[in-house]
Write a structure and sequence with these properties.
This protein is of the alpha+beta class. The chain has three domains: 331 residues, no CATH class; 74 residues, Sandwich (Immunoglobulin-like), CATH 2.60.40.10; 74 residues, Immunoglobulin-like, CATH 2.60.40. It is built from 18 helices and 15 strands. Strands 10, 11, 13, 14 and 15 form a five-stranded antiparallel sheet that branches. A hairpin with a 3-residue loop joins strand 8 and strand 9. Helix 4 crosses helix 5 and helix 10 packs across helix 15.
Length: 610
Amino acid sequence: MAVLVAVVVVAVGIVALQVRDHPQLSPVDELQHLDYVLKSPSAGVRIGEQFGLEAIKVASCRGMAWPGWQPGSEMWPACGDPQPDPTRSHSNGYNTSYLHTPTYYSATWLAGEVVLRLPGVDSPLVAYRLVGAAWLAAGLMLVWYALGLVNVGVWGRAAVVGLLGVSPVVVHASAFLNPDATAIVGGGLVLVALLKWESGRWPWWWVTVATAVAVWLKLTNAHAAGVVIVYLAFRIWQERDRQNWARARQRVLVASSSALVALGSVLAWRLWQGSRQLDDEKDLPIFTNMRFDSFQWTSLDDQLRSVVTPFRDQWVPFAMPRSALLPLGGIADIGLLVLLGAALAVTAAKSAHRALVVGVFASMVAMGVVTMVSFHLALGLDSLTPGRYGLSVLPFAAVAVAPVVRRQVLARALIGALACATAAVMVYGVLFYGPKPTMASSPDSETTMGVWCSTTSTSYSWRWNEVEDDTVYHVSLDGWSWEEHEGTTLVLTGQPANTEAVLYVQAGSAEEWDGGPSGSKACRTAPEGRPNVICTTTSTSYTWTWDPVDDATWYRVRWDRAHPWFEINRLTVTIDKSRSDAGDVLYVQAGNPGGWNTEGTVETVCRPQP
């Protein structure tokens, strides 16, 4: 027990250090997941729903751990803005975490409310992230228990569970807010239920129940069910000469019920979300660049030739020693395949362990293909499958390599050494490596004022935070000529396009204003030109193209007046054929970092071909 506690403490400690030293949001959709948790408990984020104000305000002061996505940049809202624009954020303001069920988010919200009351936890995001450490601890304990069920000794379990707990892909899934944190727990539950049933200690339906729990924590945890199905099918084939039809029928029952639960859960959730969507899923901007009219057989070939292990393509934060962690992750990736091959060689032809190795390997090979086909059927998308989608397979892989770990001291030593090296680099990274990203702060109303702006091609619109006990603000456009102004907004119309102006603001009263809180903000009016939009159609799609507008940095479009705007930096957009035969309308505006030419909006109707 002491060894298990030590292993879990090290893994959880590394996660806690990551949370402490990485205030920026992870680019792996953490803003999406934060918004979902803040809206919990709920029936789930709806298709077409945009980020809530609370999530955007948190994100605007933290920024994203990706070059150019810092607070106040062109791609990200400014910290402290009382009216941040959600479209100036990840995925153009659309929350695409609707793909996930609300189970993880509601459970994390509930546990986070408890963690938030602990000493030193001063932010809901920090509390929700720390819940990921609890998910990890629970998952590691399940794997430890499962290894004990197959007679792996204490030090063998310590090596395997230790490597699992400190690998970069698992640490990232646990230290940043996302439902992948449940993968080890989900896979571990299904694995323990399978081992208990196979040994005759649990009834068969526990496997089905565990599968349902895993899938509803995150739908991609269905890969754990895939291992069970292949394993049971292979066991039936192994025992085909023994004529144990009762056992074979029961294995068919477990495999079919697990498959039905996994597939039924996915379909039920998709139907539920489709019945309550706010927008057509295929029109969401995050999907437009990945959509294809036909199935991409070339990508399928790439997926077939690439064994997708959960250790592949690990995300390592930029503030970590990537030059060391990426090679260590690569060694774990190759090492897992080598261990599976060794386990296949040392196990008996008709043993349960050989069937488990086959199930794990088949699941990893098929994972990319299954995921790709599923996304194509649902959304017409072509995208690579990240290895983290298969994290729920890792508990099965840990048990599958048990014969090698039990027999070979060298295997235990090498796995333990890799775990210790990875843990050491992780700890070094969070304590000493590189500059620590800092979180931006809102302006202090006692000394400075936050000033923000937006523009059109003919107007400036400034706003600033209210200062208590001050009823009058003094504003100036040149820093010399000051005028009294009431309220916290100022709009100037009739201005030239693509021209910069700086507003200076100082708080005070009608009698005394010198020395009060002050701030300033430069604004540039939007470009003047109107895009020249041309529409072409096929029987299945619309394509709009337009010429570049002078001084425009980007463009934004929407399908009709009921849809929100989203930004693009190209001169064309294609969508699937409209649900209506009357045609689709595209609105296009040109813009720069200051604002949008709303006066120059171009409305173009596309008529579908027969």
